[in-house]
C-alpha cells in the first residue's frame, strides 16, 4: 500500500538526516503518538498564546498566556509525524492542521511554523492547512501547492480578540495570498451569538469583495471559565448551554442555519468543517465522518488487494477485504492503530468482522 511504503521510506530518509538523539526526542513527543482524528492531525507550533481571545479554550487546558516556540526542529517535527504509527504519509495521507492550541504566526513562533510546514511538505507531502488570526506571511505562497490558509475571525469589529490584529487586516493579508494563487478560506470561528450574527452580512460582503469564495463556520465551545470571560465582554451564553463544567467544553446549542443561508446567498461555498476546506483546497476527497463526504468523491479509491497486502505486512493472514461504496469491510478484527492507519490511508471508514484469522 502506497501510504505504508511512503511512510517507511520517509522515516528512513529523515533518520539519515537526524542525529540519533534527535530521532529519540521526536519519537518521545506526543506528535509521534497521538492518534489523528478523522479531520487529521494537529501540529503545535508553540506553547501558550498571549492574544487572550475571550472565547479561547487553551487557558482552561493549562497553556500559559505567553508563547514559546515548540521544542522540536522542523525536521524533527516532520519525523515525529511520519513515525506516528496512526499517520498515513503522502499526498493523500493524513490531513495536517497547523495552529490548534496556539497562534502559529506570533513573532515568537512564525519562523518555526513556516519551517514545520515546509518540512512536512518536502518530506511527507501530506495536505497542509494553517489557521491564523495574524496576517499570514507572504512566504506561505511557496510552502505547498494546494496549501489551505484559514483566516479566522468572529466578526468585523474584533471586540472579542482585543490583542489580535484587526479582522480587516487579517482579511486583507489573506486577500494578498489569494492574489498569489494560494487557497484562502474564511473561517468564522467561533460563531458567537449576538456578536457574529449582528454584522454577518457586512463581514461576508467584505470578504467576498476581497476575493474570498469559501467559508467554514465553527461552533463555540465553552467551559465555565470561558462563559465568565465572555460575560465580561457582554456576551451571555447561558441561554445556549444546559450545563457548564470547569474543564470539559460544551458546544453551545445555537443553530448555524441562518449564517449558512446568508453566506450561500452571497455566493459562498459553505464547507461543513475546517478539514473539508483542506480536502477541497487540495482537490481531494474524504468520507471519514458524518459531516461528509467531502470533495471530489470520484477520486476516493481503495484497492482491496493493496489493503490485503498492508494487512499481511502487519501480520494478519488471509483477511477478507471488500470495498462497499464509501466504506471498507474486513472479516477480521485488527488493532486500533492499524484500523486508524487504514482509515487515514484510504479516507474511508473501516468496519470489522468478528475473530482474527
Ligand atoms: S489566537 Fe487562538 S490560541 Fe491565541 S488566544 Fe486567540 S483563540 Fe486562543
Ligand atoms: S468527511 Fe469531510 S468533514 Fe468529515 S473528516 Fe472528512 S473532510 Fe472532514
From TrEMBL:
Keywords: Iron, Iron-sulfur, Metal-binding
Keyword presence, Iron: yes
GO MF term set: catalytic activity; iron-sulfur cluster binding; metal ion binding
Top-level division of the source organism's lineage: Archaea
Entry-linked InterPro entries: MJ0683-like (IPR040086), rSAM (IPR007197), rSAM_sf (IPR058240)
Keyword Iron in record: yes
Sequence ranges assigned to domain Radical SAM core in this UniProt record: 33-269
Pfam families for the chain: Radical_SAM (PF04055)
SUPFAM superfamilies assigned to the protein according to its UniProt record, in alphabetical order: Radical SAM enzymes
Record protein name field: Radical SAM domain protein
Originating species: Pyrobaculum ferrireducens
Amino acid at each position: 500500500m502506497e501510504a505504508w511504503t511512503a511512510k517507511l521510506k520517509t522515516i528512513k530518509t529523515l533518520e539519515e538526516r537526524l542525529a540519533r538523539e534527535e530521532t529519540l526526542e521526536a519519537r518521545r513527543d506526543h506528535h509521534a503518538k497521538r492518534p489523528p482524528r478523522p479531520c487529521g492531525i494537529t501540529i503545535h507550533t508553540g506553547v501558550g498564546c498571549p492574544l487572550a481571545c475571550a472565547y479561547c479554550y487553551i487557558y482552561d487546558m493549562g497553556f500559559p498566556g505567553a508563547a514559546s516556540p515548540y521544542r522540536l526542529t522542523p525536521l524533527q517535527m516532520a519525523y515525529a509525524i511520519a513515525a506516528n504509527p496512526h499517520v498515513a504519509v503522502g499526498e493523500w495521507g493524513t490531513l495536517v492542521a497547523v495552529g490548534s492550541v496556539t497562534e502559529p504566526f506570533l513573532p515568537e513562533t512564525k519562523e518555526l511554523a513556516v519551517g514545520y510546514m515546509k518540512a512536512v511538505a518536502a518530506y511527507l507531502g501530506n495536505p497542509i492547512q494553517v489557521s491564523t488570526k495574524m496576517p499570514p506571511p507572504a512566504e506561505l505562497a511557496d510552502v505547498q501547492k494546494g496549501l489551505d490558509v484559514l483566516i479566522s475571525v468572529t466578526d468585523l469589529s474584533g471586540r472579542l480578540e482585543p490583542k489580535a490584529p484587526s479582522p480587516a487586516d487579517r482579511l486583507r493579508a489573506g486577500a494578498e495570498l489569494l492574489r498569489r494563487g494560494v487557497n484562502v478560506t474564511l473561517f468564522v470561528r467561533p460563531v458567537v451569538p449576538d456578536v457574529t450574527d449582528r454584522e454577518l452580512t457586512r463581514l461576508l460582503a467584505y470578504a467576498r469583495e476581497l476575493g474570498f469564495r469559501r467559508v467554514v463556520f465553527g461552533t463555540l465551545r465553552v467551559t465555565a471559565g470561558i462563559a465568565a470571560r465572555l460575560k465580561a465582554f457582554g456576551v451571555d451564553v447561558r441561554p445556549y448551554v444546559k450545563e457548564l463544567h470547569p474543564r470539559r467544553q460544551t458546544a453551545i446549542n445555537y443553530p448555524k442555519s441562518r449564517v449558512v443561508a446568508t453566506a450561500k446567498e452571497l455566493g459562498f461555498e459553505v464547507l461543513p468543517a475546517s478539514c473539508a476546506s483542506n480536502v477541497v483546497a487540495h482537490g481531494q476527497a474524504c468520507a471519514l465522518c458524518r459531516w461528509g463526504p467531502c470533495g471530489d468523491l470520484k477520486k476516493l479509491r481503495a484497492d482491496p488487494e493493496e489493503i490485503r497486502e498492508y494487512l499481511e505486512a502487519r501480520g494478519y493472514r488471509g483477511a477478507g477485504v471488500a470495498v462497499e461504496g464509501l466504506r471498507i469491510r474486513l472479516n477480521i478484527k485488527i488493532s486500533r492503530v492499524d484500523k486508524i492507519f487504514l482509515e487515514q490511508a484510504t479516507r474511508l471508514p473501516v468496519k470489522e468482522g468478528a475473530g482474527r484469522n
